[in-house]
Amino acid sequence: MTIQSINLGLYPNDGTGDDLRTAFVKVNSNFTSIYTQLTNLNGQNLGLGAGIFLNDVAGVMSFKSITGSNGITVTSTGTTVNVAAPNPQLSVVSQDVNPSLGGNLNLNGYNIYGSGDVRTTVWGLDIRVLSNQLQTILTTGFGDQGTFTNPLGNVYDLGSF
After folding, report:
1. DSSP per-residue letters across 18-34
2. Where are the chain's structural domains?
């Protein structure tokens, strides 16, 4: 419904404007129109992802809060809500040229595959050298096994193979 304007006339009491009854009929009609439009307000979530519209109770719309955790920050402006990770590459390990762990790596029953090389040491011994020595022992039972140094004395724990 379009808003009904009250004819005020050219100047007070000139007889050309709306009479009092007609003016208040228009006022009531305008308020009824506004009230009807406000009580019919509702909301819906568009597109994919989590919806933020919660419900509409007696013309009061409620929305879910957007929060962040684990370093995720949420900021807002007058027209936008921004959700950002502290480092977008944290979720793309293959793009990190120097990845490192902040704690123990749990393989969760999976294996690590690749054509690269494992470079680490156990008690100062390069495990690649240890692997070659163990292969010689397992395949021939002979050969020069080199010298193992152990900071713990005569206790050697090479794990399970």
Report:
1. --HHHHHHHHHHHHHHH
2. 1-40, 53-89, 117-147
